[in-house]
Amino acid sequence: MNTSQLICISSLFVSLTNTGCATTKREQLEAKFAELDTDRNDQLSYQEFLKTRIAQRSDDPKAAFAATDTNRDGQLSKREIIARFKERKQ
Ligand SMILES: [Ca+2]
Ligand SMILES: [Ca+2]
User: Which residues hold their Cβ within 5 A of ligand 1, which is an ion?
Assistant: First the structure.
C-alpha cells in the first residue's frame, strides 16, 4: 500500500474533522482510530464502528460491518478497514 491510499482512509472513516486526503497524515489516522477504539483493544467493535463515517453513510451498517470484517471475528482491525477502503475505491 502506498502512502496516499492510507492517507485517504482517515477522511473516509472519521467524521469528526474534514481535513481531506491531501493533509491527513498516517499519524492522524492512528490517532482517530485510537479515538474510536474506546476500549483500546486495537480493534473496532460494531458499537465503535457505528461512530465511523463508513457506518454513518451506509444504509445498512450491519452489512457494511460484516463485509469489512473479513476474518469474521466480530471486530475490525485497521488492516480490514484499509482493505475495505481499497476495495471500494476500485
Ligand atoms: Ca475496540
Ligand atoms: Ca476482523
Answer: 37, 39, 41, 43
Taking the C-alpha atoms of 49, 51, 57 and 63 in order, what is their torsion angle to the nearest 10 degrees?
20
The alpha carbon of 25 and the centre of ligand 2 are apart by a number of angstroms equal to: 24
User: Tens place of pLDDT for every residue, the chain, 90 residues?
Assistant: 455 555 455 555 654 444 455 445 567 777 888 999 999 999 999 999 999 887 888 899 999 999 999 999 999 998 888 787 666 554
- Cβ pair 55, 67 in contact under 8 A: no
Hey, what CATH topology would domain 3-89 get? Answer: Recoverin; domain 1 (1.10.238)
**What ligand is nearest to the CA atom of residue 44?**
1
